[in-house]
Amino acid sequence: MTLKYSFRLTEEIARWAFEVHIATATDWKIVFTNPTAGPWKRLMAPDSNGTIGEVHRFEREEDRPDLVLVNDALQVLLIIEAKDTLEKLVSMEQIKKSSDVAISLAHTLSKKEKNPYWAKRAQYTTMVGLLWGATEKTNETSRKELFSKYRDSLKPELHNTMSPVLLGIESNKDQGTIVCTGLVSKSADVYRGLSPEKLLASLKL
Amino acid sequence: MTTHKFELWADSFHEGHWACTQLAKVAAPLGWKHSHKYNQGFIPVHSYQQEKATIEITVYGSYKSWEELPSQIEDLLAWGKPDFVLFDSVTKKIIFAVEETAAVPTGNQALQRCERLYGSARSKIPFWYLLSEYGVHKDKGIRRDSIWPTVMALKLTHQHRTPCVVLHYSDLENPESYTSGTGLASLFGILFQIIANVSSSKEPFANLEDSFQTQYQAMLSFVTSQWGNIINFLPGADHLSSKSISKTFASMATNPTAYIPWPNNFLIWPKISGLPKEIKEQQHGKSLIKHDPLCEQFEKALTDGKAYSLSDNAGSKPQPEKSLLEWITSQSKLFKKAETLSPKAEFTIKLSDFPTSTGTNRHVTTAKNIVYLYDKWGDVRNSIEKIYPRLRGKLDRTKDNSPALVYLSNSVKPGRIFGDPFTGQISAYATAFGKFDSEPRIVLAYFPHQVHSQAIVSPGESKNKGITIMSELTDYLLFSGGVAVQLNTGAVL
Predict the structure, then answer these.
(1) Residue B475: band (very low, low, confident or very high) from pLDDT cuts 50, 70, 90
(2) B67 contact residues in A (CB cutoff 8 A)
């Protein structure tokens, strides 16, 4: 199909394409997304009856992740940082910022057991995800470097409150569409009964 | 079965997708069935179907993500980016534009997006601005929205004879709640009716005068209940109690060619002789927080009966010394890079000019007023020439008897004056206070802590929205060192 308008692979498109995939093809729930504006500055989740309510409200100047997903069957919370390219995720400033945001949000949400819209999710395993756009597939070396740097930055939390497995999502521009591919930092780690293969299968990546 | 195709261009996919979902909610009771799919796996396409008609809306999210936008959309975005814009791909016309915000309506936020109202109105594009009436401030107190976006919208409706509407959501018990108050349902109710009209080849506003009247009544009721909390005098306030005024505005919006006079004196800020006695008596210049010789003249003009102000409660937001030093250094570099002027202008801003506040913070606020309404431009010009003699003979004397508006921004950070919130503020104040009244005010924007070179656009360089807006809404920008710029001609004086 010929597109009426050509698009650039921006962070917005890379992230949105993944969100559409999650919403249409998986059991994961998007509980927070961080587009440029609009009524979405709150982390919202459904209670056991499916009624959606506020779990957490970010302060105006507070750094926010780009996407937060939850999977009730796997009992996993996924905090994702997105950029239009992998290179932008690798800068030391970005790594520190994204790690701090993930650690801070994970701590906040782990104390929300009394919130009716979060409740048992406070005990879920937290994972960190990194999402980037790519017009050509990235190579293994650059992905390894990315995962390694984030693992170093998150080290005090990994195994302790967070899964040691990091998830990578590459949104590839392929002709007129976007194909999302999932990658994991360490294929051998099983954390709290969740293997990387099971994680990728649940995300249909 | 006919299908009418529209494109919804939006600031983000979420914004466009959300708007289409809201449209579905109001369309359902009217018998329209809604469904959606994704073209290319990520481009939302929403369909609304009735027995004999289908409306199809394709969402193109994130303006910057597209190589080539329709030129009509591109032109509109140069004046500020609305959150979503509906484009008719058949007629190639913009049907409407909408700005909506979850931001708390306090401080600068309230006026921050007002340039978008102006940008749409000047192109006769119907515009709606949806914002929270009540918000929770950082201090946890409840704040209510400013009247200026609404006043601006009323004046633009008349000036451009096209709908320019401000709607509020939330209420006192549920601040910032989209589902409280009437704004959300009212907005999408009228938008869907317009879409249905266009798709069935009717006039866009056919049979909608009552809906417009309801929306304008809500705006007027808001001004009625809120203006006394913001200012101490609203010209023609008596009109607010008239039962027919909302119908007048609805007619102005929907009948662009009918002769509909502006309600006498309503929202026309008068010359000093037209002020109520008690307001006239309140006009006294006050001391400045941070010294500036021209601002001192503005304050003196209040005492001398040459100008008046509406309130004097601009807050002081002291800035850290470290930031100030960085900004002053950057401004100095910008000044040195600019061409030498004749007579020569001097860069004189220094850290010690800014009085210390708490800790290592320093005050940047000069006067507590940011708007002065002068009876005569000549008085403003004389003050400028007294403080900045290098401008003697350079400012227009032929309009000395015209009324004038002085807008003051104390910002020190380079580059900010052509972005948010200043372009929104200037748009709101210039429109509300008379740039386009029958006796138009000369508009001067004074930036005592900014350098003029930021306002100069080199040949081939694209203009930012601030410069685009100010080219049309100001007569002069006046910068540190007494350098004036006329953006409409590009003259640097």
Answers:
(1) very high
(2) 5-8
Find out whether A42 and A56 touch, Cβ atoms under 8 Å: yes
**Shared-domain flag, residues B436 and B341:** yes
B51 touches chain A (CB under 8 A): no
Chain A nearest C-alpha distance from B254 (Å): 29
Would you list which residues of chain A are within 8 Å, Cβ to Cβ, of chain B?
A: 1, 3, 5-8, 10, 12-13, 16-17, 20-21, 24, 33, 35-41, 60, 176-178
Q: List CB contacts (< 8 A) between A177 and chain B.
A: 40-42
ipTM score = 0.92
Residues B417 and B451 in one domain: yes
pLDDT at res. B28: 97
User: Does residue B268 form part of some domain?
Assistant: no
* Domain co-membership, B8 together with B68: yes
Nearest CB among B40, B60, B138 relative to A177 is that of B40
Compute the count of residue pairs across chains A and B with CB atoms less than 8 Å apart. 86
Domain that includes residue B173, residue range: 2-254
Closest CA to B313 of B226, B371, B234: B371
| Between B415 and A144, residue with greater pLDDT | A144
DSSP state letter for B275: S
Looking at per-residue pLDDT, the higher value among A37 and A198 belongs to A198
CB contact under 8 A, B67 and A8: yes
Does residue B55 belong to any structural domain of this protein? yes
Average the pLDDT over B247-253 and give the result.
Answer: 95
Mean residue pLDDT across chain B: 93
B122 CB neighbour count, 10 Å cutoff: 18
Q: What does the pLDDT look like over B16-50, one tens digit per residue?
A: 999 999 999 999 999 999 999 999 999 999 999 99
Rounded to the nearest 5 degrees, what angle is found at the Cα of B114, between the Cα atoms of B109 and B117? 150
Select the residue from B6, B7, B22, B43 to test the A interface by mutation, using most A Cβ atoms within 10 A: B43
Angle value at C-alpha B150, between B245 and B21, nearest 5 degrees:
105
Q: Do B279 and B156 sit in the same domain of this protein? A: no
Please list the residues that pair with B127 across neighbouring strands.
B97, B164
Decide if A126 contacts A159 (C-beta within 8 A): no
Q: Please check whether residues B187 and B290 belong to one and the same domain.
A: no
Query: What separation, in Å, do the N-terminal and C-terminal C-alpha atoms of chain B show?
Result: 63
Which spans in B352-408 are helix H? Answer: 377-387
B382 within domain boundaries: yes
Q: Which two tokens stand for residue B23?
A: 């449209």
Mean pLDDT of A170-188: 87
Q: What is the pLDDT of residues A141-176, one digit of tens each?
A: 999 999 999 999 998 777 777 888 999 999 999 888
Does position A38 have pLDDT exceeding 70, yes or no?
no
Are B301 and B402 members of one domain? yes
- Taking an 8 Å cut-off on Cβ atoms, the answer to whether B104 and A60 are in contact is yes
Does residue B264 lie within any of the structural domains?
Answer: no
Number of domains in chain B: 2
In chain A, which residue's Cα lies nearest the Cα of B9?
Answer: A5
Which of B254, B283, B316 is at the close of a domain?
B254
Co-location of B223 and B293 in the same domain: no
Q: What's the whole-number mean pLDDT along residues A94-115? A: 94
Are B167 and B294 found together in one domain? no
Question: Is the CB of residue B271 less than 8 Å from the CB of residue B375?
Answer: yes
- Tell whether B65 is within 8 A of chain A (Cβ): yes
Q: B11: which DSSP letter?
A: S
